[in-house]
Design a protein that fits this description.
12 strands, homodimer, six-stranded parallel beta sheet, DNA-binding, four-stranded parallel beta sheet, alpha/beta
DNA sequence: AAAGGCCGTGCAATCGATTGCAAAACCGCT
DNA sequence: AGCGGTTTTGCAATCGATTGCACGGCCTTT
């Protein structure tokens, strides 16, 4: 009395091509051809209909392993972010998934925690899993592994950073233009002594935003004071707190702070609070990213919005294009930021 | 002059078992046995060493498709959440992934947007992909599909909800106890007229927290006034705003609001602001979840923290257990909440 | 020294689909 | 009716690993 399997009962093995074939009285290969739109035309309409019917009735679903084994395609895409808990990534991922889904692909997501070693491990694991492509939203500028992957012809799209020198598919936002928007805004309010909480230079975003800040200041005929540029070691609240605290302790006065990202700006809030300064009455602050919930803080943060969802979607679309027509020349898409004015900016005291 | 493949050059097919076997001069099956820890003992130590060496030198990596085809295991786990952008989910997911990783599994994540139809599609897609198990963090209480999946013996763990009647693996937090903490806190501050922003009853969390609220009120010898219980149609800021607005427009006075979740509480902030009321001076508010950033809002939200990361990790661990020893009797783990006192609660005016 | 065991290895079937090639069926036309 | 030429369908190899079974060699035992 042969039992099906162990006690749990492996869920009765699924319907296979062969089952459908037997049911209709044709060869499995015929069924395969019917079910593959590309080869559907090879078989008589009548048989095709009968096969489709039977497949539907039996609830046939192709075995992805067999398919992948034969064709070497997994329909999996690896997505690597530094930290899913950082609120800018979920919207990006949703953008990615919505597009991948439509293409029949599935994303597998991993966090690098900004540790190169972890990143290496993850990339290896993804290659072991035979992902069809990779989307990297990690901010690193070191990229030996990635270069190797690309050299091997692996489809790849970067989000929010590029690799200088190498042509590579990438979706970035116009960081410099975003900084112009922020600076122009506070300048228009009447500020002239403007500080910058700068992101880490090892990230291309940190670097480009600093550059944008300097440009925008000069464009406004203001000299960016080096003593008002506070470098931060990470895009984290504590760093923003630390940096602005130091600025406030210095001798150079300022009435506005343009931060390289929202989290630095939020840290800045805390620094002001420590000193009993009020935002925006005493000091104006702007952020960058418009991440979720920054409209809920007090005061609601004036910031530069970058189209996170759109960026994810575009990146996924670019990847799908590479997958369908390999060898396309790498292109870099730039998405425009917009200024979101809320409550953290106001004219300077007595301005 | 046969080219390898198309212009891109399919990355030269990887090293296979057969390659390693040829190199060492043994049969592929021997290599397989060496590389599988469970069968390693069947082969001579000397040969085993030579095989391991060769495998390492050649950079052999098993083909996951072939493996899966033969063994019917994908090492994939489906994770379903309502909306990745909701900040409570990323920590849960990180908890899940950290454990799955260690077990060699990979998560594939999908968003249901709380739409049953989408949920159905996603579950189907995951089953088509042959996931080895499922973790559901969706809050729905309708569950025909899930029941079917379980009946088929599919390993499953629920997060933050259970299915009444059916025994099922689940990780939940002690919602009722959490509400007790919140109510006790405001009662201890001196409040007696306490309102509740209730979550949707179609979610077990909404239901249980309301129940907890009532119990805690009675335990404090206060009669929960039905007119101070405002139902919300969703766990969203707008609903909290709407609900508290209505309460404020009513005739029944109150000095504290215990919300069923942080987002409702944040919506409550807006309702107070509309009326020119200050928190906590005029009205105290508490949340539930302690989601990221609620410490940054003004005032920082007093709330009940639930161990999100831990919940994810526990759920994953429970799933792995099911996978290694199927047929274990379902168990439900309850994790304890803790009260986080911040700035949104204070003694009542003149209290 | 022969017989019986056991251990280590090889053989070959199998998982479920895809696909080049061969065979069969069918067409129109003379 | 028979022939060349297309369709249409079937056959069988293949992707890369796992695993039950058989075989051969060596060791022990009498």
């Amino acid at each position: 009395m042969a039992r099906n399997a162990s006690a749990t009962g492996a869920p009765r093995s699924r319907v296979t091509l062969r089952d459908v074939a037997r049911r209709v009285g044709v060869h499995p290969s015929t069924v395969s051809r019917v079910l593959n739109p590309r080869t559907r035309g090879m078989v008589t309409a009548d048989i095709a209909r009968r096969v489709t019917d039977a497949a539907g009735r039996l609830g046939y679903a192709p075995n992805p392993f067999a398919y992948s084994l034969k064709t070497n395609r997994s329909f999996l895409v690896g997505v690597l972010v530094p930290d899913l808990v950082n609120p800018i990534f979920p919207p990006i991922i949703r953008g990615i998934e919505s597009v991948l889904d439509r293409g029949g692909y599935t994303a597998i997501i991993a966090n690098s925690d900004n540790q190169p070693e972890r990143e290496r491990l993850i990339l290896e694991k993804m290659q072991a899993r035979q992902v069809d492509g990779l989307i990297l939203a990690t901010a690193h500028r070191s990229d030996a592994l990635v270069a190797k992957y690309m050299a091997a012809g692996g489809p790849l799209v970067l989000i929010n950073r590029t690799i200088e020198g190498t042509p590579v598919h990438a979706v970035v936002n116009e960081d410099r233009r975003g900084m112009h928007l922020a600076v122009q805004h506070v300048v228009a309010l009447g500020h002239t002594r403007i500080a910058h909480l700068a992101g880490p230079p090892r990230f291309s975003t940190g670097q480009r935003r600093l550059q944008g800040f300097r440009e925008a200041m000069r464009a406004a005929r203001l000299r960016p004071d080096p003593r008002l540029i506070a470098p931060c070691a990470a895009f984290a609240e504590e760093e923003g707190l630390r940096a602005l605290r130091r600025l406030l302790g210095g001798r150079v006065r300022f009435t506005a702070v343009v931060a390289a990202n929202d989290r630095l700006a939020l840290g800045g809030y805390d620094a002001l609070a420590e000193r009993g300064l009020r935002c925006p009455e005493d000091v104006s602050i702007t952020g960058f990213n418009d991440m979720p919930l920054v409209d809920k803080v007090r005061p609601p943060l004036t910031t530069v919005r970058i189209p996170l969802y759109e960026m994810g979607a575009r990146a996924a679309r670019m990847l799908l294009e590479q997958l369908t027509q390999p060898g396309a020349t790498p292109q870099s898409v730039q998405l425009p930021p917009t200024l979101i004015v809320r409550g953290s900016t106001a004219p300077p005291r007595g301005g």
